[in-house]
Amino acid sequence: MSGAALALEVVVVFFLALFLLHRYGDFRRQHRMVLFATLLAWFLCFLIVFILPLDVTTTIYNQCKIDNRVHPKASDTFSPDNSSNSSVLPTQGVPKTCFKPWSYVPDGILPVFWRVVYWTSQFLTWLLIPFMQSYARSGGFSISGKIKTALIENAIYYGTYLLIFCSLLIYVAVSPQWHLSWYDLRTIGITAANTWGLFLLVLLLGYGLVEIPRSYWRASCHGHLQTKTYFKAAKLMTEKADAEENLEDVMEDVRTVSETIKYNHPLRKCIDTILKKCPVEYQEKMNRNMDDYEDFDDKGNPYPSKKSLVKLHKRVIYAVQRHNRTHVQWQILLDEAFHLEDVAQNETSSTHQFSHSFPSSAEPSGWISRYLYTPAVEWYWECVFRRWCYRVLAVVLCVFSAAVVWSECTFFSTQPVLSLFAVFIQLAERDYNYVYIEMACFVTIFFLCYCVYSTVFRIRVFNYYYLAPHHQTDAYSLQFSGMLFCRLTPPLCLNFLGVIHMDSTISHQQRQQTAYNSIMGSMQVLSFIANGFYIYYPMLIVLLCIATYFSLGTRCLNLLGFQQFMGENDLTSDLVDEGRELIRRERRKRQRTEDGDNRRREWRERYGEHSGRSRSTYSELKESDGSGTDTGRGQTRRDRSDKTELLQDVEPLDFNEDEPLETEDRRYAGGHYLSTSASRSRIFDDV
């Protein structure tokens, strides 16, 4: 199994990152370089999380060999007969039996692996992804134009960092008390990047440790979940209307520019590029109103410059993306609201069969829903078991959160060991239970990553950065998330190693370093950071958890004018009532659409076979003999004469007469309603 576990986890992590990118990104529309950079960033960050437990077990095994001071071959032997004695510590002077873990990675592989992964992620987060963000957000009409815009924006951004770094480098070179080598300079750079990441990590972790268990507990309360859905519907409708209004304004500017610049103008290619980014219905309107018979005249009215067209192109991309995203989110929110209302109605059902308001849109396809997830199973899950499962999960997550907060505040204490995760790892290390060590490390670091990454996926910054599922995330937000992951994952892993006392820089223990720590370098170069900031700053999690528990951030945003769900609040109640009315209106609209589809389906099922028989009968009549044809023609003549007589019995309406149309009730003598048009020329005005 040497190296097989490493290769297996690499494959699993790759498909996990690909699945998430497919859920949030759009493979068909977004640029290939944007997708590749985001996929690589997510893949490397998830890979660090999955491979780190293997590094821990490999380090423990190597530490055992160092303690025995014997040849590695003598300690690699494993016999089932003496496996029961592995938990007994040997007496002094007797070497311990070191058992090789099943996921052992050979020497020399992990250092190279961590070096490639770490420096690739740092290259992505500090150089490539910011450049690709500016490239994707640029409104240029050519590749060279977009590259030029991206270089200018990043030159201003990184010029400041370069100036600060050069100033510090000159200060270190001039000062006689500083004698730094290239290794020390590299360590200072890594420490600076990890310090920035740890600062942001503690903020996100303090929010996620409280909000994630609380969200699962509230999800078990059906009434609270339904009320919050109504609140979100009211806010989303406002955003949807704003997006539609913004799109209308941008399309009006595009129409004006398109009518100004004619087909033979040098900038007409730029206009055609902008029109391709517009929705189809707006393209048809603009093409219908376009007059290409007018020639370009240099002496006419002033034309917009190419720089203004670049800005307009950028506005079009943003407006169309926002409009499509809000439309898709509105449909998803409607389905969620309808489902919650169906759950509330089915809770009192005596048949224990879950019924949907709109069966055509609610029934998933596949054999799972047909044989396993039946209406009875769905009723028991939605109405009985779901709330209890969520409550149990919320309690388990709350216990994990309490353990993390306690360990973050006490991991610097080595005598006695107060960190709970360090106690668990050391107990398993005595028995060389590598499976338990890997599972404990993986569960712990996975929970930390879930608290941090889920907060990244939830935060929203004024529609400038927003991760929306169902392929609705724009390129800038995708790359921003990848950049955040690359900056947060290395300090998160260092913090985890410190919590379990595998980082000798923090625990001050004489033991072998993990391969990951060897890549990070010795933090003692900057002692005030290693002995001060890295130890005491994570204690701020306690204050952040208290602030999140009392919703201080939500209250501050609500005071600033950003409507937040506050429970017992007048503004929240008004938005909930508004959302309830919006959902009720959309339910009536969808019900009418559903009834119309059902009637058309029943009509096709009832008369589809009859129409098929009529066509077959007609073909048989054409192939029959001459006498049969003559008989059919005679019957056809009689039918036509009957229809003519029926039409002659009907009194024709004269639309030229003004007398009947000016009556008070607009009826004629027969009692039938006539058209309300005043003249014949206005009958088809609305067509």
UniProtKB/TrEMBL annotation:
This protein's GO CC annotations: membrane
Biological processes, Gene Ontology terms: adrenergic receptor signaling pathway
Subcellular location: Membrane
Disordered: annotated segments: 606-687
Family: Belongs to the LIMR family.
Any matching Pfam family: LMBR1
Protein's name according to its UniProt entry: LMBR1 domain containing 2a
